[in-house]
């Protein structure tokens, strides 16, 4: 069976679904989605909270991943202050390692690139754990978890926001197109 183009799919929707799709595409475009029609089609066709998924993943890149390479001097200076002003024993080894690497001539850009990769790995791992819904439940009666979409008033919509780890890399690639 041939998969219909977006235009063919859209033309087959009733007027209410078309309006819902157009509004969704507009919101996705406003937040930088390069494949807004793909995200909207999935949300409408499959009832997946794609706008919520896109928004959280799109926010993670600049705030939790890219920031490490965008201005490496800022976080290295901040970590240096941990060593002197507010020592945090749990990060003392990292602060000392940064100091040694800088003294050895490693550039801030190189350290920023490395830190960015580690941040991506950590973000992916956290999202994977959230998406897993819980630890191995061999009859132990342990609770699980899930992330759920809310409307603009904070009320649950009933839709899960899952599979985030599966889209973390592609959301960044999407923003580069």
Describe this protein's structure.
The protein is mainly alpha-helical and 177 residues long. The protein has 2 domains: 47 residues, no CATH class; 128 residues, no CATH class. The protein is 66% helix and 5% strand. The protein is built from 8 helices and 2 strands. The protein has a two-stranded antiparallel ribbon with strand order 1-2. It starts with 5 loop residues before the first helix and ends with a helix.
Short note summarizing the structure:
This protein has 177 residues and is mostly helical. The chain has helices spanning 6-11, 15-30, 36-46, 50-70, 72-84, 92-103, 108-132, 164-176, and strands at 148-150, 156-160.
Helix content: 55-70%
The overall pLDDT, averaged over residues, is 90
Strand order of the largest sheet: 1-2
By secondary-structure content and strand pairing, the structural class works out as mainly alpha
What topology does this entry show?
Blueprint: H1 6-11, H2 15-30, H3 36-46, H4 50-70, H5 72-84, H6 92-103, H7 108-132, E1 148-150, E2 156-160, H8 164-176
Antiparallel strand pairs: 1-2
Helix pairs in contact: 2-3, 4-7, 4-8, 5-6, 7-8
Short descriptors:
single chain; 177 residues; mainly alpha; 2 domains; two-stranded antiparallel sheet; 8 helices; 2 strands; 5% strand; elongated
